[in-house]
Design a protein that fits this description.
Distance between the termini: 50 Å
Number of strands: 12
Oligomer: single chain
Bound molecules: iron/sulfur cluster
Radius of gyration: 22 Å
Mean pLDDT: 86
Length: 353
């Protein structure tokens, strides 16, 4: 069996929300609260959830852009969680980040050729005499022409700029790329092109992706596995096929219900989840979803449900995942929806265009 390129064990990140006059934290935000997963070469793990669920914080933690409060991060089997910057330097190349806004991350005063040469030089990846040809190769890899290296970022469209950002990430020959809402700002047709490019690069280079997104419609096209997060915890994880075909956690079902359905019989108004996401400063005890969950019992209000794997890698953190109505009954396919779930994700106006 292939060893994972990245393992995350019980990762925790607390931020101080308020401090005393002496700088002591008075209240803390539990942004990430015991997250674990593993990632293999050539695999895409999507981390999905609403804004503020902690998914981007997980991305920044594995990039080592912020320190973890607790837990471990292993790159190629090496524990890099607490390495100082000097010792982490050889590992930094292995994991790269692509943001939502390509324009903000490209220096407007540098040509694209200079932007792509910079990491080659900093990491001593190719000799100075070969840099030009490597830049041309990188541009070609992402579907741009070598002569475009002489232009500046503002001369490119949003999709082309995202290609440049991808080329810059590839310059250091990473094993993992963290894509944080990487296609969210793009038009639908351009988004499809960038997703296809990412898949093509993955097949050619064996890259592993952590694909962070709020959009399950996008995730469906790229993910091999999915981890659904709610208030700092993973509530469901499994292969993309399994999670889409048989979502077990009420929260995953609510998220899936918000994906537009093509069938005219299932046309419905798209509503967001009812109720606000509770504050991560004072998350509800037990199951974090219980104030919004129509199936909640006293057990849910009291005890935290742990992720329970069914033996196939599909795991759900719900006390009652076995007893809940099947997803086919619960999801609003063909205009039907379990009335209890309706309360969770908003009443769909039946027959409303
Ligand atoms: Fe709902 Fe209880 Fe399951 Fe949480 S554990 S999702 S509150 S049924």
């Amino acid at each position: 069996m292939t060893a994972p390129v990245l393992e995350v064990e019980n990762l925790v990140k607390h931020f101080a929300a308020t401090r005393s006059a002496f700088g002591r934290p008075l209240t803390t935000v539990k942004a990430v609260d015991g997250v674990s997963f593993a990632l293999k070469s050539g695999e895409t793990l999507a981390i999905v959830g609403e804004s503020g669920c902690g998914k981007s914080t997980v991305g920044r933690l594995v990039m080592r852009l912020i320190p973890a409060t607790d837990g471990r991060i292993l790159l190629d089997g090496e524990d890099v969680t607490t390495l100082d910057d000097r010792k982490f330097r050889p590992y930094r190349r292995k994991i790269q980040l692509i943001f939502q806004d390509p324009f903000a991350s490209l220096n407007p005063r540098m040509t694209v050729g200079e932007i792509l040469s910079e990491p080659l030089m900093l990491h001593g990846i190719v000799p100075a005499g070969e840099r030009r040809s490597r830049v041309a190769e990188l541009l070609h890899l992402v579907g741009l022409q070598p002569h475009q290296g002489a232009r500046y970022p503002h001369e490119f469209s949003g999709g082309q700029r995202q290609r440049i950002v991808i080329a810059r990430a590839l310059a250091v020959e990473p094993k993992i790329i963290v894509c944080d809402e990487a296609v969210s700002a793009l038009d639908v047709s351009i988004r499809a092109q960038i997703l296809n490019l990412l898949k093509d690069l993955q097949a050619r280079l064996g890259l592993a992706y952590i694909f962070i997104s709020h959009d399950l419609g996008v995730v469906k096209h790229i993910a091999d596995r999915i981890a659904v997060m709610y208030l700092g915890r993973i509530v469901e994880t499994g292969s993309s096929d399994e999670v889409f075909a048989d979502p077990r956690h009420p929260y995953t079902r609510a998220l899936l219900s918000a994906i537009p359905v093509a069938s005219p019989a299932a046309r419905r108004e798209r509503r967001i989840l009812e109720g606000d996401v509770p504050s991560p400063i004072h998350p509800p005890p037990g199951c974090h979803l219980h104030p919004r969950c129509p199936y909640a019992t006293d057990l849910c209000r009291r005890d935290r449900p742990m992720l329970e794997d069914d033996g196939t890698g599909h795991a759900s953190a719900c006390h009652f995942w076995r007893e809940l109505p099947s997803a086919a009954d619960a999801l609003p396919r063909e205009g039907r929806v379990d009335p209890r779930l309706e309360r969770l994700f908003g009443a769909f106006a039946a027959g409303e265009p």
